[in-house]
Amino acid sequence: MAATGLTATVKRPDALDEAELAAWRAMLAAAPHLQRAFFTPGFAQAAGRAWPGARVAVLREGEMIVAFLAFQYADPWRRRLGMAERIGGALCDHAGLVARRGFSIEPATLLGLCGIGTLFNDHLSGGQAAFGLAATETRAGHLIDLAGGAAAYFARLREVNKAFLADTERRMRRLEKEFGAASFTVQDRPDWSAVQPLLEAKRGQYARTGVSDALGNPAALALLRALLEADTADCRPVLTTLSAGGRMLAGHLGLLHAGCLSYWFPVYDPAAQKVSPGRLLLWRTIEAADRLGIRLIDRGEGDSQAKRDFSTEVQSFGRVAWQARGWRGMLARTAQAVAWRLGG
């Protein structure tokens, strides 16, 4: 499906009508590589409650909806200059176009239709090349395929990495010896009070390790609140914890969509580092995957040994800085370059 005779209507996420929402969800259901919470209308609408500059472009060919692009302007001056970023900013692990099978468009054409000057995205999801949106620079990420069930996954792991499995079982025994009987809990759609301790611990981890604080922006916390308060089936927050001796040793807040759990905000108690509580929490999550309806765990971008140990498949993430044609694209690109030099 070539990008000819296209029009685009740009709306705030909460202004989408039922027909548009239905078309969006149908496109997600038809494309396994798009079945991530970050591509859903629910995530875009939560971002719209956090960022006034959140937008969704609805692309049509004649009367037929063919694609959606969710994006945002981080602040009013970027909106005036046409400098867009992925919807949800740093909290969005997958971004790109949601489109019908066979649809293809050039980045500059897409931006021009949407009224965007430049679009920076360092989490362009794998599979976007099928829509004509290829990245020149890519990084690896990892997936855990549980479609055959947890028992089959562990049987395969025992075949390919028996030493890792034995070491993990040994660490669980050590955890219980040093901290007490372990307790694994799952909260579907937790409330803010349940999530707050994990977020505080995550911010402490950012400060301790010198990593940029993804939760330091008030809009990021507003997005999290909006997701927790929303009543939507396509983007469900799930909180898992591993505790012992009356303390949380590891926790994780993730997003579940169509059987895919996006492993989003994991954190662990550094005092328990020797027993690898983060690894053990993921282990228990995999054990519970069948009853939780999890068929895939997306570990996001990153190629650490901790991710490779559990991985069954590698995925790719692209980095792109697209520019529209004409003066609007040139102006936005110049402003973006200045912002990067200033660290903004």
Unreliable runs, pLDDT <50, ≥5 residues?
Answer: none
Percentage beta strand = 25-35%
N-to-C series of helices and strands? EHHEEHEEHEEHHEHHEEEHHEHEH
What integer is the average pLDDT? 93
Structure class: alpha+beta
Counting DSSP H or I runs of 4 or more residues, the number of helices is 12
Query: Roughly what percent helix?
Result: 25-40%
- Tell me the number of strands: 13
Largest beta-sheet details: 13 strands, mixed
Shape: globular
Amino- and carboxy-terminal Cα gap: 38 Å
Rg over CA atoms, rounded to whole Å, is 21 Å
Question: How would you characterize the overall build of this protein?
Answer:
This protein is an alpha+beta fold. Helix content is 39%, strand content 29%. It has helices at 18-30, 41-50, 76-81, 107-114, 150-160, 162-179, 192-209, 218-229, 277-287, 289-292, 305-310, 326-341, and strands spanning 6-11, 54-61, 64-72, 83-86, 97-99, 118-125, 137-145, 182-188, 236-244, 247-257, 260-268, 296-301, 313-323. Strands 1, 2, 3, 4, 5, 6, 7, 8, 9, 10, 11, 12 and 13 form a 13-stranded mixed sheet that branches. Strand 2 and strand 3 (64-72) form a beta hairpin. Helix 6 (162-179) packs across helix 9 (277-287). The protein is globular. It starts with 5 loop residues before the first strand and ends with a helix. The relative contact order is 0.17. The mean pLDDT is 93.
